[in-house]
């Protein structure tokens, strides 16, 4: 018997016994007009007992092909053979028998070398799935880990089409053999927690100890468009290389348009300079509308459609269009590239033109204004991806500007000035001079962060509230405007909007916001503008304004919350930094994320004219703990006026071993130097999300400062700082000592966690000098 996998708990018996039993019942009923036919067919079937008892050899299937086809005639109507994609099979196997003509035609087009196999279906999945079928049948235990199954079958044109597999198991039964073991509840409990242990599943369910008798009817459903979209979404959201994403995009368009020779181009629109270019935005595509000899601006009807109407422009016959517009540079350029039909689609986000998607084909009429509507299902995902890539590029540009033109921190400026002076002196004397690396050895690193908690959750909640209010308003307007039984289009819109509202309340997926907004803009607004209730519609559009409308209020509140918190934290640390720099110059840098992170480096090499003492490092460490506590207190006080009552978590990393830092000339910033010193950066990156050892609780907690360290002397040192701030009424009396879970490449870390007392007199707090604190260091 042809099977997909060698090892299987279920022994196959390809049998038609259930169909034969039904035929026997028909033959026994003399009142049934088909009784004589059934009797005659049974007589011929009984001459081949393997049809009832079970076929175990594919040869027997072929020998009885005509009889089997007649036996299954009611299940495979001849009138539907060119419509249905159907065959007889066994569960999850590559066998397909008694195929309909449409199914056979699909396989013929795939070619003689094509082998039909389930997509991404492994022996492990098959074995465990078979065991789950046995558990469900005999032990009433249901493990539902099944997922949609697909066949990927190429057409004769080379386009891969995707078919979802649906099984009808009405003609199957499962029987244990005499050797089949009894499965105990304890074994079932063990299997629950060990899906990945295939050896355990095989031990519990030995090979060929159960029999599956009968057959399944396999139906295939063409889901090429849906599957192409799903794959494309995964690739667009993934971190796949640009070339992989580009190929996925190309294949998706070819599958959706069912054109094997379709090509994709993209032209980016530069808003600052007002023209199109072919500079890569993460994904590098050729452009078919731009050329070296062309002005990089659209004109005429394409310009009107894309720039003003913000809609597609399609040309079904380039040669015919050239006869009508012989002076068109665009049409001439397309024709010279062998393009016979094309679609230009504007890529627009928030009313901003990002670029133009170009679809071209060497065939006439295959791309046109009708097929252009297929873009509606794919453009939202493409728009979001290009928008994200544009934002990433803009961020990168800003980062480069900052890296190349940033002002050097005053604490290290002297060394760069000296090197620049040496360069000028030597080159003015006609000598060659190579810049020396700017390094600072034996410096002590300090790292800290004050992170805004639950920012992602709050953002999602704000989106849910805003979109929910918008949906309710639309439902109310359309509900009031509909006429029972007469406005089917409005009824359909209401159904979809209510479905969106229900789905929105169950949770927010990554594309929920974009999907709903796209539906509203493309489907609802056309109907909305045609309604007689002009005042209600006008009010709705006022509320839909992203900058002032009520339907974006919560999202604006979220952004305002993050902005106010970050600005408050920045104000505190920047002001206090100016004070502490006067004691001993040290390198300082901060980063604004969902909160504020900072790095500091202190040592004799940064200020060689001064006498660096251990006391200077202790002062800076006490300063860091005190200023983070102050940032916590200021943020807590700010909460009363924030749109969202978000808190913060604070973290300090203690690292007592001096390290070296080097200024990277290629990236224009300081980085840790040397393989051993990299460990510091590794710890910094991994402790943020670390848990308390043996638990799922984070080491950080709102309202508390967590101090991570490795050495006993570090613990003693920071306990002294904590005592000083406890005496000042800044920190709580209770200090927790924690063990940090082992991280990749890092183990043995510990932590102190202490609460911050927020009931402070802010005027006194802000006016306080840290000088008296430093005196307590001895």
TrEMBL record:
<protein>
    <recommendedName>
        <fullName>GAF domain-containing protein</fullName>
    </recommendedName>
</protein>
């Amino acid at each position: 018997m042809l099977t997909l996998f060698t090892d299987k708990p279920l022994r196959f018996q390809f049998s038609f016994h259930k169909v034969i039993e039904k035929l026997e019942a028909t033959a026994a009923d003399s009142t049934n007009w088909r009784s004589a036919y059934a009797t005659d067919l049974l007589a011929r079937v009984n001459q081949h007992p393997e049809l009832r008892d079970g076929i175990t050899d594919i040869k027997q299937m072929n020998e009885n092909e005509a009889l089997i086809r007649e036996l299954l005639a009611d299940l495979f109507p001849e009138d539907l053979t060119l419509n249905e994609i159907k065959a007889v099979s066994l569960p999850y196997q590559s066998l397909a028998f008694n195929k309909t003509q449409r199914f056979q035609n699909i396989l013929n087009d795939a070619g003689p070398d094509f082998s039909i196999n389930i997509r991404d279906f492994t022996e492990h999945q098959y074995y465990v799935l078979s065991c789950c079928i046995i558990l469900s049948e005999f032990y009433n235990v249901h493990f539902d880990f099944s997922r949609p199954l697909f066949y990927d079958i190429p057409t004769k044109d080379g386009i891969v089409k995707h078919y979802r597999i649906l099984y009808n198991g009405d003609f199957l039964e499962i029987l244990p053999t005499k050797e089949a073991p009894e499965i105990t509840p304890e074994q079932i409990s063990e299997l629950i927690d060990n899906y990945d242990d295939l050896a355990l599943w095989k031990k519990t369910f030995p090979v060929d100890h159960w029999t599956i008798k009968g057959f399944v009817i396999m139906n295939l459903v063409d889901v090429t468009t849906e599957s192409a979209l799903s794959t494309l979404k995964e690739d667009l959201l993934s971190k796949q290389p640009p070339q992989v994403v580009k190929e996925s995009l190309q294949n998706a368009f070819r599958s959706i348009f069912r054109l094997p020779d379709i090509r994709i181009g993209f032209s980016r629109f530069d808003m600052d300079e007002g023209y199109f270019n072919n500079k890569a935005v993460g994904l590098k595509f050729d452009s078919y509308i731009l050329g070296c000899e062309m002005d990089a601006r659209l004109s005429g009807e394409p310009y009107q459609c894309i720039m003003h109407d913000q809609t597609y422009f399609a040309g079904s016959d380039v040669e015919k269009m050239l006869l009508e517009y012989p002076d068109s540079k665009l049409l001439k350029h397309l024709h010279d590239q062998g393009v016979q039909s094309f679609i230009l689609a504007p890529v627009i986000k928030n009313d901003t033109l990002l670029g133009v998607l170009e679809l071209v084909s060497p065939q006439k009429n295959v791309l046109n204004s009708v097929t252009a509507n297929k873009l509606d299902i794919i453009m939202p995902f493409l728009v979001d991806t290009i928008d994200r890539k544009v934002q990433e590029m803009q961020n990168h540009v800003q980062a480069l500007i900052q890296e190349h033109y940033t002002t050097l921190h005053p604490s290290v400026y002297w060394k760069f000035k000296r090197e620049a002076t040496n360069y000028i002196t030597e080159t003015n004397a006609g000598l060659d001079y190579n810049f020396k690396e700017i390094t600072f050895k034996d410096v002590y690193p300090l790292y800290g962060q004050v992170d805004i908690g639950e920012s992602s959750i709050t953002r999602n909640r704000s989106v849910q509230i805003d979109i929910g209010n918008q949906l309710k308003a639309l439902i109310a307007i359309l509900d009031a405007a509909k006429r029972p039984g007469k406005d089917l289009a409005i009824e359909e819109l209401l159904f979809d909007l209510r479905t969106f509202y229900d789905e929105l309340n169950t949770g927010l997926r990554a594309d929920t916001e974009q999907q709903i907004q796209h539906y509203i803009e493309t489907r609802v607004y056309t109907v909305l503008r045609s309604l007689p209730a002009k005042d209600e519609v006008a009010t709705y559009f006022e509320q839909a304004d992203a900058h002032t409308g009520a339907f974006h209020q919560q999202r604006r509140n979220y952004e305002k919350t993050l902005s106010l918190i970050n600005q408050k934290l920045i104000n505190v640390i920047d002001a206090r930094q100016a004070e502490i720099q006067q004691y001993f110059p040290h390198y300082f840098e901060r980063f604004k994320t969902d909160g504020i992170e900072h790095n500091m480096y202190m040592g004799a090499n940064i200020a060689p004219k001064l006498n660096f003492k251990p006391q200077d490092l202790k002062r800076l460490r006490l300063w860091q703990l005190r200023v983070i506590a102050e940032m916590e207190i200021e943020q807590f006080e700010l909460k009363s006026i924030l749109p969202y009552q978000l808190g913060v978590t604070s973290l300090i990393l203690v690292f007592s071993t001096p390290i070296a830092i080097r200024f990277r000339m290629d990236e224009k910033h300081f980085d840790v130097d040397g393989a051993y010193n990299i460990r510091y950066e590794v710890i910094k990156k991994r402790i943020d999300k670390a848990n308390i050892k043996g638990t799922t609780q984070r080491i950080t907690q709102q309202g508390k400062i967590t101090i991570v360290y490795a050495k006993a002397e570090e613990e003693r040192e920071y306990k002294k700082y904590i005592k000083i701030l406890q005496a000042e009424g800044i920190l709580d009396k209770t200090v927790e000592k924690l063990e940090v879970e082992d991280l990749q490449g890092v183990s043995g870390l510990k932590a102190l966690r202490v609460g911050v007392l927020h009931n402070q007199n802010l005027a006194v707090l802000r006016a306080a000098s840290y000088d008296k604190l430093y005196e307590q260091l001895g």
